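Re: [ENG-882] Designed sequences occasionally contain unexpected residues at chain ends

Forwarding the minimal case from QA. Structure tokens:
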């Protein structure tokens, strides 16, 4: 098998000389893992490559699960769906919709695989709702010794507790069981609002609807707010007219935005004026559609991203700090800053572990060095006990991670037992978790 090159979606992570092994079915995953272990190689399962960090970067064997993507069970009475790990979220959403079900919460991108999204702590928004991993009710894990663990709150509970956000460090997840709910619609209200009003009313807005988020356009005092309220499907749908949806979500938000980002890269001085125009172009609108169609946005402009999770009460301070940093440094930032929320959960390495959380995400277009801007935001978040999204750029090491995650040792105890030689690790995981015990004396 010829070595190949792997790259992630954004193109900022790459690996050469990778051996790609395709697996379909748990038995083929076991065989691939056993072979890699016998040959002394590290093995990394790869989904859609939507992480901006090197969390998925293969260093020996790239285990492709593209064909391991089927529906295994749908228990309508219990509201449980079990899928193979490589199932992409957009396919899962369609399957659920046809069967009368919805995911409780979703992020705004649906290209990730189920295992990749949950393992990196992908979340949506909503003060009362957790991230995708909080919806897991069971999983199947292939370990470094070729074993297959069935994990749930009742079976291998210690592994289940930490593996819901496992970073790919514990083994290869081969199947995931998710709690779903009867299908619902979302009534979306999008409108412009002054930044200072949003910050002054943050708690009111966050608690006033089911799923709240806002986008602040740097160099302006304007935001776009999104307030999505759950409504029953039988109340009727009022989706956007097709032409308006194409104009606003495809042409303005993708085609035109790509053009303005390109102009801003060539002439940075124009970015503030471009942002002011962009803030005005995205006007108010109200519509009702199936939940996954409202949660998801089309993202065709490539970018790099960093996102920090801070205690909810610190969100306003972080946004104001970012604004001051942008102004003080004279940066020209073309991408909006995104702010979302999540309820506390009990998953040791979840960014919302043990606390109600707000997320502040910053972006830069591909081709622009994000480090000065992102590092400044990271320093601000550090002062607010911020935790980085595992799949988005950051510079923390294991000592920093230990300060942010009180239950890191519980996670490492399971990691060290299941993968003592670090066969599922890579340089990123060695950095943020520390090396596995079999590597510490090498």
């Amino acid at each position: 098998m010829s070595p190949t090159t792997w790259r992630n979606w954004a193109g900022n992570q790459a690996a050469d000389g990778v051996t790609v092994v395709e697996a379909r079915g748990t038995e083929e995953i076991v065989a691939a893992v056993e072979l890699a272990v016998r040959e002394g190689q590290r093995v990394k399962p790869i989904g859609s490559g939507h992480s901006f960090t090197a969390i998925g970067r293969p260093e020996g064997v790239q285990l492709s699960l593209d064909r391991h993507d089927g529906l295994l069970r749908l228990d309508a009475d219990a509201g449980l769906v079990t899928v193979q790990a490589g199932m992409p979220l957009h396919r899962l959403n369609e399957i659920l919709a046809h069967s009368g079900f919805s995911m409780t919460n979703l992020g705004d991108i649906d290209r990730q695989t189920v295992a990749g999204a949950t393992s990196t702590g992908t979340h949506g928004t909503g003060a009362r709702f957790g991230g995708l991993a909080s919806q897991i009710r069971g999983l199947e894990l292939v370990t470094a010794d070729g074993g297959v663990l069935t994990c749930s709150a009742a079976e291998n509970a210690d592994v289940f507790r930490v593996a819901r956000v496992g970073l790919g460090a514990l083994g290869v997840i081969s199947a995931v069981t998710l709690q779903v709910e009867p299908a619902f619609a979302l009534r979306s209200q999008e409108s412009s609002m002054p930044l200072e009003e949003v910050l002054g009313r943050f708690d009111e807005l966050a608690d006033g609807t089911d799923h709240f988020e806002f986008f602040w356009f740097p160099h302006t005092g304007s935001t776009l707010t999104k307030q999505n309220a759950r409504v029953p499907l039988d109340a009727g749908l009022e989706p956007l007219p097709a032409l308006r949806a194409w104009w606003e979500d495809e042409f303005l938000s993708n085609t035109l935005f790509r053009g303005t980002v390109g102009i801003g890269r060539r002439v940075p001085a124009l970015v503030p004026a471009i942002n002011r125009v962009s803030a005005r172009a995205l006007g108010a609108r109200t519509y009702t559609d199936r939940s996954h169609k409202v949660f998801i946005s089309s993202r065709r402009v490539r970018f790099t991203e960093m996102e920090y999770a801070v205690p909810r009460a610190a969100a306003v301070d972080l946004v104001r700090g970012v604004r001051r940093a942008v102004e003080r440094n004279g940066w020209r930032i073309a991408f909006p800053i995104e702010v979302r929320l999540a309820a506390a959960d009990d998953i040791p390495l979840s960014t919302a572990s043990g606390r109600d959380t707000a997320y502040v995400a910053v972006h830069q277009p591909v081709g622009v060095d994000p480090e000065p801007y992102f590092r400044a935001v990271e320093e601000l978040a550090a002062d607010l006990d911020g935790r980085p999204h595992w799949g988005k750029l950051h510079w923390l090491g294991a000592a920093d991670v230990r300060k942010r995650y009180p239950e890191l040792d519980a996670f490492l105890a399971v990691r060290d037992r299941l993968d003592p030689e670090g066969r599922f690790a890579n340089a990123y995981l060695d950095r943020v978790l520390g090396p596995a015990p079999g590597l510490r004396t090498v």
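QA comment: On inspection the terminal residues look reasonable. Residues 71-182 form a domain with the Uridine Diphospho-n-acetylenolpyruvylglucosamine Reductase; domain 3 fold (CATH 3.30.465.10). Proposing we downgrade this to a documentation issue.
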